[in-house]
Amino acid sequence: MPTSAVSTRPHVVVVGGGIAGLAAALGVLDGLPTAEVTVLEGSDRLGGKLRLEPVAGHLVDVGAESLLAVRPEAVALAGRVAGDDVVAPSTTSAAVWSRGALRPLPGATLMGVPTDPDSARGLLTDDEVERLRDEQEWPGGALQEDVAVGEYVATRLGQAVVDRLVEPLLGGVYAGHASRLSLRATLPTLWDKATRGASLLAAPTSGPVTTEGGAPRPAFAGLVGGVGRLPGLVADVLRSRGAALRTLAVVRRLEQVTDGWRLVLGSAASPEVVHADAVLLCVPPTPAGRLLAPHAPTAARVLGEIETASTAVVTLAVERAGLGTLPGSGFLVPPVEGRTIKASTFSGNKWAWTGDLSPDVVHLRASIGRAGEEAVLQRADDELVEASVVEIGEALGRRLPRVVDAHVQRWGGGLPQYAVGHVDAVAAVRSDVARLPGLEVAGAAYDGVGVPAVIASATRAAAATVHHLSTITTHRGDRPA
Ligand SMILES: Cc1cc2nc3c(=O)[nH]c(=O)nc-3n(C[C@H](O)[C@H](O)[C@H](O)COP(=O)(O)OP(=O)(O)OC[C@H]3O[C@@H](n4cnc5c(N)ncnc54)[C@H](O)[C@@H]3O)c2cc1C
Questions:
Q1: Which residue, by CA, sits nearest to atom 4 of ligand 1?
Q2: Using alpha carbons only, what angle is made at residue 245 by residues 243 and 249, rounded to the nearest 5 degrees?
Q3: How far, in Å, is the centroid of ligand 1 from the Cα of 222?
Q4: Which of 281, 279, 288 minimizes the C-alpha distance to 261?
Q5: What's the whole-model pTM score?
Q6: Average pLDDT for residues 328-352, to the nearest whole number?
Q7: Whole-number average pLDDT of the chain
Q8: Cβ burial, residue 373 (10 Å; 0-12/13-18/19+)
């Protein structure tokens, strides 16, 4: 039986060592265990937006810290590599800092749209609750085309539910604005209702979901030691299966050759060339667009047009003595409140492992920055820390005790913005890229920014790569030697 290099050990190169790239590499090895897999990560560490840093001597998450458990991909991957270390939050009760007080976030909402209007009373005034109950039709009935979340929800349920609920929740996930973000791409369940002309209020809940056995399980999960452990654990599995994981390996150019792809790494003065039978591009939209430009101009243009939001995560370790009891897992801040921080997580309350880190300090964090509001991030680190300390204290109604340590993690361009028309834009990218044999794209730019959606896009890209390699293997294997 004649064989070729491809049929024996195809070389698959994954560009980007964030969770998308690592999950894609694992997906390739699961589908084609004989593949030679190389992950090329441009920075000095794997993990991308999943990252741990020491604060008061204890490693804590300074990027993503929570995994949506309503969909299976992230908890499945975490369970595979971390087993029993996948844990539920100790508390899921959260608040909105609105009109001068912390007010409970309704338990059952779909990205802020409550199932029961009365559950929003207090956060919304009585008049605003009545407006919410008095759901209006969208002019023209069932929605035909994508629209901004804010415009659609405000028209049907009133501006207040957008300002005080939807906006802060979208701000938490996308660091974006309801007036810009796509209903179809960011809230597919509401989009589905909208296209059927159905009521938005009878939405499924964002509260606990029910397992097959009937027991409720929380909608979110974490990892003992932090979600930031996930990339390292996946990397360990990849290494044990023979994959090569390289850091400080920035891919500068992609060249298509007859038998696959050449990747150019390193400086212009001393470039390194790597050959690949297949490439998975698991990088943010801007570098993806740049690398695709010579080969898929439509995809490159569309990716280049995706805006990103810059944010910062401020982590505080404050003295436990004098802190008192913190209410729930934290709070969101609606932009209409005009504050610097957009959310705070009481990490020590939310995750038991964080609460147990030290008898002396408690870890809290604040998030800062929304799309188009880069000015706030031009402040120095100590100013961001100061603003976080003051505003968390104001929200709690008391001064925070002494801050023992603080860490500021800046995420420049960290979150792609899914503008109106995003789903069509992604379809255009995919159809352009589909013309390029052996090239796939995955990551936060496409089907959702949350870790589960990112892993899903990676798994899908890995499956397509395995399929491509099996096709060319068959094809080359059929050739006479
Ligand atoms: C502050 C913050 C908090 C978040 N919180 C949560 C959360 O709690 N839960 C949740 O589900 N999601 C959360 N997210 C979103 C989620 O973490 C990200 O969308 C996801 O991790 C993105 O993964 P990725 O692999 O697509 O991209 P990235 O993590 O950005 O990884 C891409 C990698 O590609 C590398 N790269 C770029 N260009 C090149 C190149 N030319 N050559 C080689 N390598 C290159 C980069 O260095 C990077 O490491 C959060 C995001 C942020 C910013």
A1: 64
A2: 140
A3: 17
A4: 279
A5: 0.94
A6: 97
A7: 93
A8: middle
> What number does the ligand 1 atom closest to the CA of 415 have?
53
Q: Which residue's CA lies nearest to atom 6 of ligand 1?
A: 64
What average pLDDT does the segment 103-113 reach?
88
Predicted local distance difference test score (pLDDT) of residue 209: 47
Place 115 in a pLDDT band, splitting at 50, 70 and 90. Answer: confident
Q: How far is CA 292 from the centre of its chain?
A: 23
Under the banding of pLDDT at 50, 70 and 90, the label for residue 62 is very high
Residue 202, φ and ψ in degrees, nearest 5: -85, 45
Q: What Rg value do the Cα atoms of the chain yield, rounded?
A: 23
> Yes or no: is domain 87-92+308-416 CATH 3.90.660.20?
yes
Residue 436, CA distances (Å) to 423, 445, 481 in order: 21, 19, 26
Count Cβ atoms below 10 Å from residue 58 Cβ, excluding itself.
17
Check: CB of residue 161 under 8 Å from CB of residue 190. Answer: no
For residue 21, report the distance from its CA to the centre of ligand 1, in Å.
Answer: 10
Which CATH superfamily groups domain 5-48+226-306+419-478? FAD/NAD(P)-binding domain (3.50.50.60)
Q: How many helices and strands (H and E) does the chain possess?
A: 17, 24
- 3-class SS letters over 346-392: CHHHHCHHHHCCCCCEEEEEEEECCCCCHHHHHCCHHHHHHHHHHHH
In what helix (H) or strand (E) does residue 61 lie, and over which residues does it extend?
strand 58-61
Average pLDDT over residues 376-389: 97
Average pLDDT, integer, range 470-476: 70
pLDDT of residue 4: 43
Structure tokens at 253: 């150019």
Ligand 1-lining residues (CB < 6 angstroms)? 15-21, 40-43, 48-50, 63-68, 250-251, 282-284, 287, 311, 313, 411, 414-415, 443-444, 449-451, 454
User: Per-residue pLDDT averaged across 255-264, rounded?
Assistant: 97
**Intervals of CATH 3.90.660.20 along the chain:** 87-92+308-416
Q: In the chain, list all ranges with CATH 3.50.50.60.
A: 5-48+226-306+419-478
Instruction: Give distance in angstroms: CA of 473 to centre of ligand 1.
Output: 33
Tokens representing 51 are 């990252």
Domain formed by 108-206, architecture: Orthogonal Bundle (1.10)
Instruction: Provide CATH 1.10.3110.10 ranges for the chain.
Output: 108-206
pLDDT of residue 107: 80
